[in-house]
Amino acid sequence: MIQNPILPGFNPDPSICRVGGDYYIAVSTFEWYPGVQIHHSRDLVNWRLASRPLNRASQLDMRGDPDSCGIWAPCLTYADGLFWLIYTDVKRKSGAFKDCHNYLVTSPTIEGRWSDPVYLNSSGFDPSLFHDDDGRKWHVNLIWDHRGRPSRFGGILLQEYDSVEKKLVGPITNIFRGSPLGLAEGPHLYKRNGWYYLMVAEGGTGYSHAVTMARSRNIAGPYELHPDTHVVTSRFHPDATLQRGGHGDFVETPDGDTYMVHLCSRPLPGLYRSVLGRETAIQKCVWGDDGWLRLEGEKYVPMDEVPAPAFPPHPFPPEPERYEFNPDIGLPTAFQWLRTPHPERLFSLSDRPGHLRLFGRESIGSWFEQSVVARRQTGFNYDAETEVNCDPTSYLQMAGLIAYYNRFAYHYLCLSHDENAGRSLQIFYCNGQWPNGMTMLGLADPIPVPDGPVRMRVEVRGAALRFFYWKDDAWTRIGPVLDNSVLSDESGEGEQSKITGSFVGIGNFTGAFVGMAAHDVGGLGTPADFSYFDYKNIP
Asked: In the predicted model, is pLDDT for residue 497 greater than 60?
């Protein structure tokens, strides 16, 4: 059996493709750098992170991109001996307008150097590329209608892509405006038995999310809706483990089995808060006699476990619990940073071998240069630990252990300086109170610490987060119990009134991270050295 989600933690908007016996899933990374995560499997059960292809300034520069902007909904395909990756860099998402720039990069291998980008258009987001059996290539994306007539989701645009001229050519056609559920986005095109199938996400990425399907004999339409409208949705099943099911893509195995990947979330029990963000799940599907795709099991509802294909097991080495820092190996693959294509401004693995040196840059939540190097939270309960050494001379300088979602949602145990306590520990936190979220102090009085390295620890159990530091050969609690549930899609900018047991208008799209941070709002770039980082999920 396959256990869902197959990509736990922040891994949304999956796009899947098969090349021979290898399967690849590309997912959104939003403001985290490098851009796009591509995971690899040979059995659809076991997955490993294979590549983050957008890793240099010519491909991606997200400095100034607001929270939950950046890389949205990539599409990964394979044709003509190349992998084709289309992505959006979103520069603005709030208000009536969106600035969404769509690009294409290619590579002969997943792990190779990907090309510089080809600019496509900026009419909307969620671009996708379809390779027809006659050799033509077609581009689809949502068009964003800032007038809101009647919706800002204006339909799905189709235009041909000329791979020789490297540009979109010919007429632009609006081929689909969605079902009555509305908010059609995330389009993918397929061809099967003479039919063109269009799969879209609908209902927004909250608790009404769905995968909707339509088909036509002509690629430009008109498209008729699936008789069930949706293939996957959790909105009729509020008790399902996997909520917010939507934004799907499917693949066929050499044996003719069909599997669909889709995003989902697992809210904390009793709370509409998804600290793990939107994850990727997979479902076994069947084609009916009427030529329509449906889940193999119960109608609509995404299952926690699905039958695996009859492939030989292909496990990968487990992710280590301890990360150490070696300049010859580079930053451990679990970690990312925020926005900038110039990581040398944020950190060094060679300045002090055996350590990750962070250079204090702008404030917590900066959209430009913020020294946070972190990994995804992938379980509801975890322990994380690090050791930091720095010499702050002002309260403007701080470094330590951070649990981070965005500028309005974080918990930060840091080594800083206080006029009375000197070198000392303090906790800063923000509970996601958008639009006027304010940083609060977790300690009325900072705790003095002597010179030398300071070990820090965080324990998360569901919605409860507790910090510790090493004192007198033991872990010592520091500060209050903090609310880890605020590090979620539904908190902060996206929180709305609960309506019939669900949320609407979710405006955050990432997930909780935990990692190392250094800030110097005085502009001196004060360094902080981290000797290791531990992360362990607790069953």
From this structure: no
